Amino acid sequence: MSNNQNSAGDDKTTGHVWDDDLQDFANQPPKWWMLGLTASALWVVIYWLMYPAVPISITGTHFKGIGLPGSGQWTAIKELAEDQKVLDNVRGKYEDKLKGLTPAAILADQELSEYVVRSARVLFSDNCAACHGQNGVGTVQKGKFSMRERGLMAPILNDDDWLYGGTIGTIQETITGGRQGMMVAHKDTLSAQQIDDVAHYVKAFVEEGKDKADNDPAVAAGMKVFMESDCTACHGTDAHGMQAMGSANLTDKIWRFDSSIEGIKHTITYGVNSGDPEARVAIMPNFGTSGKLSETQIKKLAVYVYKLGGGQPE
After folding, report:
1. Would the pLDDT of 51 be above 90?
2. Using one digit for the tens of pLDDT, what is the confidence trace for 260-281?
3. N or C end of the chain: which has fewer CB within 10 A?
4. C-alpha dihedral over 85, 87, 92, 95, to 10 degrees?
């Protein structure tokens, strides 16, 4: 495009003129540009022949490509399989050893346990992190959730507080068979005043310590209810809980659900997994008996959870 008044010599134009001043020359593009365009067109044809292309509606299928010389037809599935084969060859020596070892034996082998921690990270993310959070930090529910749902979706796994125990054998057992503890609803066995009293006692017991809770007149009535009701049957007279039953330790300042007075009263009133419509729900699914995970995968996860930092010696 050029200004008509400055056009030179007898150069050919397209005949298109704008604003009485501008017109298009009919010059050809540079040779290097034409060569590049031609090479690009040839590459499109070659690429289309080598790799799968657009569907052909007449045959109801698509052109599968001739592939690279000596490699056959290319597909993403074949490429994935080849990459997986390379990965499996690297993992093979470790995976073969895992089949005949217990989680405790895996922990005793430093090289093998390091491999398991690395390879189980994806397993944990796919199967456990939705509830327990990445790296076992827990996932807190609040805001839009109701009183019944508020709290941790699942226990934190990187501390040393365990409902059923943190030995490697117990962790394997938990993952395999799942857990579903139960706290009975006390709405029919305790009065509203008794529930309020024991809630204040538990709150003081946890936050102020046993001496404060036992000697504070404001919570004396709650202590009496706690000791004389069936609370001690599960949580013990010292309120440390019983791992065999999965009952919570009430002295460690770690709360599974809402730790406010109203939240504690709700738990006492309606229980946990008690069957009441307002009960708190705390269920861990089983991954072994349901067939969701293989025995080796469960062993990997057991070691991974143990190594998060909270695992306990046998």
Report:
1. no
2. 899 999 999 999 999 999 998 8
3. C
4. -120
Percent of the chain with pLDDT over 90: 38
Position of tokens 């289309």?
48
Residues 6+ apart with CB under 8 A from 156: 132, 133, 136, 137, 138, 254
Burial class (CB in 10 A: 0-12, 13-18, 19+), 247: buried
Of 57-66, 214-223, 259-268, the range with the highest mean pLDDT is 259-268
24 neighbors 14 (Cβ within 8 angstroms): yes
Using N-to-C axis directions, what is the helix angle for 220-228 and 192-208, rounded to 10°?
100
For 199, the token pair is 């809630």
108, two tokens: 């005793």
Residue 83 structure tokens: 């990459």
Q: What mean pLDDT do residues 78-107 have?
A: 90
Answer for the pair 278, 289: CB distance below 8 angstroms, yes or no. no
Task: Kindly report the pTM of this predicted structure.
Answer: 0.72
pLDDT digits (tens, 9 = 90+) for 13-31: 877 787 777 888 888 889 9
Q: What angle do CA 259, 261, 265 make, to 5 degrees?
A: 95
The kind and range of the H/E element at 275 are none
Q: Are 213 and 205 in contact (CB under 8 A)?
A: yes
Determine if residue 155 is left, alpha or beta; phi over 0 gives left, psi from -120 to 50 gives alpha, anything else beta: beta
b/e 50-73 (16+ beta carbons within 10 angstroms → b): bbeeeeeeeeeeeeebebeeeeee
Report the candidate in 271, 291, 268 with the shortest Cα–Cα distance to residue 282. 271
Question: Has residue 144 got a pLDDT over 50?
Answer: no
| For range 122-135, the mean pLDDT | 90
Domains of the chain with bracketed CATH: 2-62 (no CATH), 129-310 (1.10.760.10)
Torsion angle defined by CA atoms of residues 27, 31, 37 and 43, in that order, rounded to the nearest 10 degrees: 160
Distance CA 191, CA 197 (A): 10
